[in-house]
Write a structure and sequence with these properties.
Elements (H helix, E strand, L loop, with lengths): L10 H19 L3 E4 L4 H14 L8 E5 L5 H14 L3 E5 H7 L15 H12 L3 E3 L8 H4 L4 E4 L27 E4 L7 H11 L10 E8 L2 E4 L12 E7 L12 E2 L5 H10 L4 H5 L9 H7 L4
Parallel strand pairs: 1-2, 1-4, 2-3, 4-6
Antiparallel strand pairs: 5-6, 7-8, 7-9, 9-10
Helix pairs in contact: 1-2, 2-7, 7-8
Protein name: Sulfate adenylyltransferase subunit 2
Keywords: ATP-binding, Nucleotide-binding, Nucleotidyltransferase, Transferase
Pfam families: PAPS_reduct
C-alpha cells in the first residue's frame, strides 16, 4: 500500500498543506479569530483552505470585510454570494460608519479611503474582541509584506513593529497574545501570484468577473490606467479610451488600476502571469506609489 510519504506531492500540495496547518494553528491557539474576506482572488483561496481545514463542520470563526464604500460592485456582489453559499457568518464594517462617528476625517471628498481602512479594522477588532485576523496577504506582493512573519504580532494599539517580531523556526508558530494585542496570520504568505492562479485553476474556484478581460473606459496616467467611474471621473483634458483590461488585484476604486489584457480565461491569465516582470501591486496600486515606504507606514498604523 502506498503511504502519504511515498506519494509524489506537488508544489501546490505542499503550499496547501502548510496553509491548512497555519489556519488550524490559529483556530487552536486563539480564542476569537476572524477570517478577512473581501471577495478578491487571495481571499477566495483562503475560503477553500478553510473548507479543507474544517469541513464538514462550520468554520471556527466568522468572515469579515472592511468596506470602504468605494469597492467595485462586481466584487461586493460576489462577496455576498460566496458567503451565502458557504452558510458562514459575514460581518461587514464600513468606513462610512467610522466617518459618521468622526474617527475618520477625509481631507477632501475624493481622497482615497484605502489607507483609512486601518481605523475601521481596529474598531471592529475592539468591538468583537478578535485576537487574530487571518488574511490573504503574500510576501511577493510588496517589500513591506516580505518582511512580515506568518504570525505577525500587533501591539495593543494595533501597530506593527518590523523589528519586534517572533522567530518562526521549523514551521512552529506562536499565535498567543495578551488581552488587547492582536495577531495577523497569513497562511498563504509564501505563495506567489502564479501559485494563486494555479490553485484557482486546480480547485476550479469562481471569481468576480473583473479578474477577466473586458472592455472598460480608462484614462492613461503615466504607466497606470485609471478606470473612469462616478468616483474617478475623467478630468478636463483627459483622453478617455475604451481598452480591453482585467484586474490583477481588486480594492478601492480610487486607487486600483486594471492592466491591458485580453486574457479572458484562467489558462490565458496563467500564461500572462508566468511572463510578467512587475508585481501585481506595482502594476496596479496607485496608493503604493506615493512613496517607497507607503505600505510599510500603513502597516505600522494597523493596516492588514
Amino acid at each position: 500500500m502506498t503511504t502519504l510519504t511515498q506519494q509524489t506531492l506537488t508544489h501546490l500540495d505542499w503550499l496547501e498543506a502548510e496553509a491548512i496547518h497555519i489556519m488550524r494553528e490559529v483556530a487552536g491557539q486563539c480564542s476569537s479569530p476572524v477570517l478577512l474576506f473581501s471577495g478578491g482572488k487571495d481571499s477566495v483561496c483562503m475560503l477553500r483552505i478553510a473548507e479543507k481545514a474544517f469541513r464538514p463542520g462550520r468554520f471556527p470563526f466568522p468572515l469579515m470585510h472592511i468596506d470602504t464604500g468605494h469597492n467595485y460592485p462586481e466584487v461586493i456582489a460576489f462577496r455576498d454570494k460566496r458567503a451565502a453559499e458557504l452558510g458562514e457568518r459575514l460581518i461587514v464594517r464600513s468606513l462610512e460608519d467610522s466617518m459618521a462617528r468622526g474617527s475618520i476625517v477625509l481631507k477632501h471628498p475624493l481622497e482615497s479611503r484605502n489607507k483609512h481602512q486601518s481605523v475601521t479594522l481596529l474598531e471592529a477588532i475592539e468591538e468583537f474582541g478578535f485576537d487574530a485576523c487571518i488574511g490573504g496577504a503574500r510576501r511577493d506582493e510588496e517589500k513591506a509584506r516580505a518582511k512580515e512573519r506568518i504570525m505577525s504580532f500587533r501591539d495593543e494599539f494595533g501597530q506593527w513593529d518590523p523589528k519586534n517580531q517572533r522567530p518562526e523556526l521549523w514551521n512552529l508558530y506562536n499565535a498567543r497574545s495578551h488581552k488587547g494585542e492582536n495577531i495577523r496570520a497569513f497562511p498563504i504568505s509564501n505563495w506567489t501570484e502564479l501559485d494563486v492562479w494555479q490553485y484557482i485553476q486546480r480547485e476550479q474556484l469562481e471569481l468576480p468577473s473583473i479578474y477577466f478581460a473586458h472592455t472598460r473606459p480608462v484614462v492613461r496616467k503615466g504607466e497606470l490606467l485609471m478606470p473612469v467611474t462616478d468616483l474617478t471621473p475623467a478630468k478636463p483634458g483627459d483622453t478617455i479610451e475604451e481598452v480591453m483590461v482585467r484586474f490583477r488585484t481588486v480594492g478601492d476604486v480610487s486607487c486600483t488600476a486594471p492592466v491591458e489584457s485580453d486574457a479572458d480565461t484562467v489558462d490565458k491569465i496563467l500564461a500572462e502571469t508566468a511572463t510578467t516582470t512587475i508585481t501585481e501591486r506595482g502594476a496596479t496600486r496607485m496608493d503604493d506609489q506615493t512613496s517607497e515606504a507607503s505600505m510599510e507606514q500603513r502597516k505600522k498604523e494597523g493596516y492588514f
